[in-house]
């Protein structure tokens, strides 16, 4: 009789090889010591095990559970909640294209669509050479540089379809690529270890991290009085010739139409339930 497979993984998960386990335990104890409550170390520990295999495996979740005295169910609940933890093998470079509102209308949607075709992968998929994993991101928190692409969480601002294609080609060719701002690129595994809280030992990497770009700091400079405030101009009158008055009703917002809510002859009110 053939065994019935229900699609459930074999339990328990396999352990790390002894030498890997010993090394990770040493790192894990260093992380746990930073927190008064050991379970608070779960997020950085998930980054730690992700730095080992490039994604969070069942073995990694078992390791976190054992180090923190949690159940594997508790660890799995966290690992599956946050999108920063990968659940399957990924590329050396996570290329995230922002497709949220501003980046989308500035070209993010076109960039993401073209990169899927150019790389021959879908969302969350990895190229055959294992170099690039492509995904769309809801927001990179860099709207003033839209459209934005991130590689292993480093910024590549003001992208175009062509510049994004050139970027992934350089990554796949193994050439050095410099982010628009921030630290130099490293592999996804190296990035995960940094996110686990371990120092970036690369010469000059920390100093290169810098701060927000000039476009992000305009408001702060204005608040400090470093730049004279600009004259506030109505967007509807700014483009009108000096000898020509701006249109009186350029939009329905300036000339609201009568609706059931504004027409006194057809007042709006609560709709009664049937039978009332």
UniProtKB/TrEMBL annotation:
Cofactor: [2Fe-2S] cluster
Organism of this sequence: Streptomyces rhizosphaericus
InterPro entries linked: NuoE-like, NuoE_dom, NuoE_N, Thioredoxin-like_sf
Family: Belongs to the complex I 24 kDa subunit family.
A Pfam family per the record: 2Fe-2S_thioredx
Sequence segments annotated as region (Disordered): 228-276
Gene3D superfamilies the record matches: Glutaredoxin, NADH-quinone oxidoreductase subunit E
Top-rank taxon: Bacteria
Name assigned to this protein: NADH-quinone oxidoreductase subunit NuoE
Annotated gene: nuoE
SUPFAM superfamilies: Thioredoxin-like
UniProt keyword terms in alphabetical order: 2Fe-2S, Iron, Iron-sulfur, Metal-binding
């Amino acid at each position: 009789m053939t065994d019935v497979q229900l699609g459930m993984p074999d339990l328990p998960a396999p352990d790390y090889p002894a030498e890997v386990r010993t090394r990770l335990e040493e790192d894990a104890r260093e992380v746990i010591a930073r927190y008064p409550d050991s379970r608070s170390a779960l997020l950085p520990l998930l980054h730690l095990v992700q730095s080992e295999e490039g994604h969070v495996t069942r073995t990694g979740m078992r390791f976190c559970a054992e180090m923190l005295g949690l159940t594997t169910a508790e660890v799995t609940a966290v690992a599956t909640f946050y999108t920063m933890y990968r659940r399957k093998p990924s590329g050396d470079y996570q290329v995230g294209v922002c497709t949220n509102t501003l980046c989308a209308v500035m070209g993010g949607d076109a960039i993401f669509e073209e990169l899927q075709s150019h790389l021959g992968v879908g969302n969350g998929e990895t190229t055959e050479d294992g170099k690039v994993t492509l995904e769309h991101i809801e927001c990179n928190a860099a709207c003033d540089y839209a459209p934005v692409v991130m590689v292993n969480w480093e910024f590549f601002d003001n992208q175009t379809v062509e510049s994004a294609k050139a970027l992934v080609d350089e990554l796949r060719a193994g050439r050095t690529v410099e982010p628009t701002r921030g630290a130099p690129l490293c592999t996804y595994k190296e990035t995960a270890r940094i996110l686990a809280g371990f120092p970036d030992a690369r010469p000059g990497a920390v100093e290169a991290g810098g701060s927000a770009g000039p476009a992000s700091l305009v408001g702060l400079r204005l608040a400090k009085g470093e730049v004279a405030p600009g004259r506030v101009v109505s967007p509807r009158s700014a483009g009108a010739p000096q000898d020509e008055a701006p249109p009186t009703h350029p939009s329905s917002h300036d000339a609201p139409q009568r609706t059931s809510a504004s027409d006194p002859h057809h007042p709006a009110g609560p709709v009664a339930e049937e039978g009332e």
